[in-house]
Amino acid sequence: MVFFVFIPALVCGSLAKTITLRSMIMLWFMPLNVLFTYIIGTALGWILIKITKVPHHLQGLVLGCCAAGNLGSLPLIIIPSLCKERGNHFGDVDVCHRHALAYASLSMALGAIFTWFYGYNIVRIYSSKISNVVKDSDSTENPLSGTETDPENLLKCSIGALVIAEENSQTNGQVKQLERECTMPDEQAKVPKKKKIAKLLKMNLKVLFSPSTIGAIVGLIIGVVPKFRKLLVDDDAPLRVVHDSVVMLGDAGIPTIALLVGANLLKGLKGLGKQLPLIIGITVVRFIVLPAIGICIVRGSVHYGFIHPDPLYQFLLLLQFAVPPAIAMSTITQLFGAGEGECSVIMLGTYSCAAVSLTLWSTFFMWLVL
């Protein structure tokens, strides 16, 4: 319900109500800001891998956790709540809350696109490398298998066991079973490259267009196109009841997101001490180095006039550099069975530190923008 109903409704309703063509032009820097967080986070994650000598099967997880921040649920909780504080410095409460939901919803949409496009593929690449090593070792031990004579197995293996497993959402045990079946040499299972590329593109498009991304696209279209806005959003709109229903569904999204984050963190209670160096490294990257670099980028952009002078907008841009890793990384590791336990431990450690880190950075960011 949260992933398929509440979050898409929240994103769609907020963007449709507050985003116009003019505001889209004003918010042009946010996608670029998110891209900066991913590029810098990836570079810092690569340095962390070299320093800590992370095992190969966890390198995709480390890169993803350093690059992909929680740009959805935390901003949706933090940014609107700032407007409801007594004596807030962001103007009228209703106007501030409406803008805050729009900024946070756009941040969530961008975060979903970047996380699933980058995080999904980086974990897939490293998990497929491990899978290939396993298949190579199995093929040397059992050079003759049923694959050579079984046409069904030949078809199954022709596009690679991992690709099939991803497309059909196979469990970890099924992936391993496919790996055991697909032990034939590469020259015996050649498939045209066009078919492989088409298969991968189809899979990546399915991942990229997640429900929250579709909700963001629909909300942006309604908000930007005047005819749709007059039909659904304006006070005298004939179909305003549709938009109000979507907004009511979306209002249930914020509390359920908070519960979902807490439920995911409970999985990391076991084995916290085993991954302590990794947790410390990711914590330093996400809560010390990235925010410091983010301050330089955002304040420099404000100085040169690239960002409009809304303090709430500037606060969100700064906050995007200081959030903990994206919860979606847990889901991605579960899809591939690569570092699932380690990811839960990392999430628990980083989100525990975020309780202190976000408080300190938010206070400092407020002082900067006001």
Topology:
Blueprint: H1 2-18, H2 21-26, H3 29-52, H4 59-67, H5 73-83, H6 93-141, H7 151-157, H8 161-167, H9 172-181, H10 193-208, H11 211-224, H12 226-232, H13 240-251, H14 253-265, H15 276-303, H16 311-319, H17 328-336, H18 340-369
Helix pairs in contact: 1-6, 1-11, 1-13, 1-14, 3-4, 3-6, 3-15, 4-6, 4-15, 5-6, 5-14, 6-11, 6-17, 11-12, 15-16, 15-18, 16-18, 17-18
What pattern of helices and strands is seen along the backbone?
A: HHHHHHHHHHHHHHHHHH
Tally the beta strands: 0
Q: Return the structural class.
A: mainly alpha
- Helical fraction: over 70%
CATH fold-level assignment? Na+/H+ antiporter like fold
* Rg of Cα set: 23 Å
The parts where pLDDT drops under 50 for at least 5 residues are 133-137, 143-172, 178-189
Summed up, the domain count is: 1
CATH domain class name = Mainly Alpha
The shape, in one word, is globular
User: Distance N terminus to C terminus?
Assistant: 38 Å
The largest sheet, given as strand count, sense and whether it forms a barrel, is: none
CATH architecture: Up-down Bundle
Beta fraction of the residues? under 5%
- Helix tally equals 18
Mean pLDDT metric: 78
Function: Involved in cellular auxin homeostasis by regulating auxin metabolism. Regulates intracellular auxin accumulation at the endoplasmic reticulum and thus auxin availability for nuclear auxin signaling.
InterPro entries: Mem_transp_PIN-like (IPR004776), PILS1/3/4/5/7 (IPR045033)
Main location: endoplasmic reticulum
Family: Belongs to the auxin efflux carrier (TC 2.A.69.2) family.
